[in-house]
Each structure stands twice: as C-alpha cells, then as structure tokens.
Amino acid sequence: MPRIPADELLVAGVWRRGRGAPFRAVDPADGSVLTEVHAATAEDVDEAARAAAEAAADPAWRDLLPHRRARLLHRIADLVERDAEELAALQTADTGKALAETRALAASAAGTFRYTAAALETMEDALTPSRGPYVTLSVHEPIGVVGAINPWNSPIASDAQKTAPALAGGNAVLLKPAEWTSLVSLAFGRLVHQALTEAELPTALFSVLPGSGRVVGDAIVKHPLVGRIGFTGGTATGRTIARHAADKLIPASLELGGKSPTIVREDADLEQALAGVLFGIFSSSGQSCIAGSRLFVHRSRYEEFLGALVERVRKLRVGPGTDPDTQVAPLVHHKHRDTVAAYVDLARSEGGRVLCGGAAPGGAAHADGAYYLPTVIDGLPNSARTCQEEIFGPVLVALPYEDEDDLVAQANASDYGLACGIWTRDARAAWRIARRIEAGTVWINTYKQFSISTPFGGMKDSGLGTEKGRDLIRAYQRQKSVYWGT
Ligand code: NAD
C-alpha cells in the first residue's frame, strides 16, 4: 500500500486542512476508502490567490534569472524521479490504472519538467529590426497568478504539463485536481513545495486546492487576481470556464473531450491494425480523451476485421492495476462504471449489437471493484448517440465505410476533433486522409504516441489552444514591446 498523504492541502505555502467538508478518496479496485480529504473552499482559494500574487511579485522570484528558474524545474524533476515508484503506486490506488501506466505517467511528468527547463534556458527576448529612428525590444513578462484545473484520468502528467510552463514563465500556480483523484496531486505538491523551500523561494508560489469544481474551480476561474486558466476536462465545463474567462478578458486554454475515429483501410497490415485499435481504445480502460472510440473499417474487410478483433477483445485480462498481467484495469469510480454501463444499454436500445463485453465481469475477484468488460458494438448509424457522445470507457463502436469520401464524411460528422488513427500501407492515401480529417492529432500506423516537443490540442468541441512544445512557456507570459528613441 503506498503512503497516503495526510489530510492536508497546500494553501498559500502552508499545509493544513481545507475549510470545506471532507470527501473520500476510494480505491476503485475494491471500493476501499483510502483516506478522507477536507476540501478547499472559495475562502481558501482567495487566501491562496492573494498569497500567490504577493509571491509572484516578490523580487526573489520576479527577478530570478531564467537559468535559476530552470534549476528549480530540474529539482522538481529530480524529486518526481526519486519518488516515481511511490507516486505510481498512489496513482494506481487512487485511479485504478495499471501500474505500468502510472509509472509511465510519473516518468512523463519528470520529463515535462526537464524539457521545459531546457527550453527555458534557450529562450531569449529579442531586439527586433528597427523601421524608424528607434530601437525596439520585445520582452516577455509573467502573467502573475495562473489557475490549473485538471481532470481525473492522468493527474500527475496533467499537473506537470500545466505547472512546468507556468513556473518557467515566472508565475505562481493554483492547482485544482479532480474530486476523484486528489491524492497524487497532493503528493506532487509536496515535491514542488520541497523544491521551492530548498531554493529559498516563496512557497506560496504553488497551492494545491482539491474540492468540487463548482466551488473551488469556479472560485479560481473568477478570482480577480487569476490572469490565465489552463483547463483540461469535459467540453461542457470548458464552455463555462471560457465564458467566465471572457468576462474577465483573460486567456484560457481548453483541452476537452473527444470521440476519435480510428480508420482501417482495405490495404492495412491487419496484425498491426488489430494491435493498434485494441490499444487505442482499451488502454487506460478507454478513459482517455484521445481514445480511438469510433472504428471505421473498409466494407471489404469489415467482417474479417471485426471477427478477429472480437476474438482478441474476449481474451483481454481484466483485473486490478497492481497485477502486472492486467490489460484492462477498473474504471476510476463506481459511479463512472454505471455511466459507461448506461451508455451500453442506450446502444442496445438504439438497435446496436453488443459483440462482446456489455457487462461488468462476474466472479468474486471483481465483485467490489469498478470493473467493466471491454465492449465492441456494431450495427448503429453514425448519428446514434453512442457513436457521437464521449463515453470515456472501454466501449468501441464499429462502422463500415464505402470509399474515401464516405469515410471522411463519416469521420468528420462529429462535434469533436481531437485525434484520429489511420491504418494503411498506402502512404499517399494516409497523407490525403490525414489532411482531410478534422482533428488536432493524426497518427498513421501508430496510436497514442506522444512527444513532449509536439504541440497537442483539439479542434471543434475538443478545445482551444495547445499544450506541450517549447512555445507553451510563452503562453504563460505577456508580451511587451519597448521602443527606445535614438
Ligand atoms: P470535468 O469537466 O467534469 O472536470 C474537470 C475539472 O474541472 C475537475 O477538476 C472539476 O472539478 C473541474 N470543474 C468542474 N466544473 C467546474 C466549473 N464550473 N468551474 C471550474 N472548474 C470546474 O471532466 P472530468 O470528468 O474530470 O474529466 C473527463 C473529461 O476530460 C473528458 O471529457 C476527457 O475527454 C477530458 N480530457 C481531455 C484531455 C485533453 O487533453 N483534451 C485530456 C484528459 C481528459
């Protein structure tokens, strides 16, 4: 059992209980209560924001040279690497995810800090060419206090993706984890706090404020001292945040939901496509914004591909995230499992055929956990709700397509535009389709691969703005041009 952080939040550089009601952190593998956390309140947010604004303006931080800020980021990476095993185990207990995945997420968090530190060291403000009797200098300044609001599906990786560029940009951060998965963010907060303390920097630069979105998240977004929001979560929440950000005229980056098409052309390497489609939807038990949840197969290979796919899905091992043999771990919460089950019932009522799965697994080993069998459904029109709405679970809907125009029309007939996978041996067709699909990321003969240097973001209802890439530091800064007369 990993060490569970004490019931204390990080508010304005101080570890103490939140002023709000306690809520339970539950292990979804068996329903056991890990701990209770006293939630933050709007008053806690106000205290954290005021202290953060002071800390951001403190000359010890404001005037710190970029290479010294980079050193802080490297130190946070060191600490994440030191505690990687414990952070992974904690995240597995809190989210249900398989250990192999939570280890990779901890490694990715450390990598994000290292990459951002390296980018920061090589970023410079520039003298810009003069077009008159003056010299111009374009400088970048911190925003001040920024809010980072995250969902429950990959907490430590999402925390790092917002915290690293925000600190690199010279800001203070108010981090709000999701209600179901606060523990790893609190553990991460201990490491950032330690790095700030060791560097003799103001500890109020970083607060971790768990609690409800409508109370804590809303208070962060609306707080007058918060000058930017980095949000990852559902599309409906993203719209609400965008409205409040518009009222305050502050930038908000929105990484939202998806219903991503994964495409198997008639000339695909079927072995490679089978493995890729399985991984695309069933890794993370489908709880991934980029899950390849709509499968399009050319009609000439449809029956053959689906038959082979279903055979493999039936063999996937469903079990606790702590078991190294597990391929499909529990869902994050029993309530979420019920939502996924309701979607499969909806598919049945819409006329869909459930080819495998479609229920919680039986047996004593799964009895208390939030498990759901990997499920494949076909026979639905692309307009069915199950084909259009994000289920965020291990549920794949399959549809045949006739030709490339039909494929592109069906794949793009979605409010979302996050990701897409294409399985083909034809490089020209891959390129053509990649350019015609409305998605922020397209993978060809691979899926769910990420590089920290490659920007990631969604089109349409999947979001606004991007994360990752060295330019992200600039998104956490304001640009100012200074003209100097000669
Ligand atoms: P959610 O929108 O319910 O919650 C996300 C966060 O927002 C939580 O911390 C929540 O407490 C907070 N929140 C809720 N209401 C708020 C409000 N009114 N004001 C401020 N904050 C508020 O999403 P979720 O269920 O936690 O996560 C799943 C969603 O996240 C899925 O739609 C998934 O696709 C999306 N997601 C997107 C990406 C991406 O990069 N595009 C990555 C991961 C997850």
UniProtKB/TrEMBL annotation:
Belongs to the aldehyde dehydrogenase family. SUPFAM superfamilies: ALDH-like. Residues 15-482 form the Aldehyde dehydrogenase domain. The active site is at E255. This is Acyl-CoA reductase. Keywords: Oxidoreductase. InterPro entries: Ald_DH/histidinol_DH, Ald_DH_C, Ald_DH_CS_CYS, Ald_DH_CS_GLU, Ald_DH_N, Aldehyde_DH_dom. PANTHER family: ALDEHYDE DEHYDROGENASE-RELATED. It holds the Pfam family Aldedh. One of its GO terms (molecular function) is oxidoreductase activity, acting on the aldehyde or oxo group of donors, NAD or NADP as acceptor. It comes from the Bacteria. Transmembrane segments: none annotated. It comes from Streptomyces indicus. Coiled coil: none annotated.
